[in-house]
Here is the input.
Amino acid sequence: MNFLGTIASGERVLIANAPEGHDALLLTQFAREHGTVVHVARDDTRMAQMADAVGFFAPRAETIRIPAWDCLPYDRVSPHRDIVAQRIDGL
Here is the structure.
């Protein structure tokens, strides 16, 4: 199966039971052929792992990290100012 061609066509692709880092390899290959790629990670740990893996496969690729909020919506506590600054910087 040609994953990159399927992804480019707009079809949904499920990659399961793949070795760690395979998703980063596919993202970097797709980015080389089609340009900018946006990846939404499940948490900050996975975001850091993905950025490291992308850096391995494509050392010149620019990665922009936008960390998750450190509070829940409608909390009485505001997000930490460092998190806010990192998110603004990423955007």
User: Anything to note?
Assistant: The CA atoms of residues 6 and 17 lie 19 Å apart. The mean pLDDT is 84.
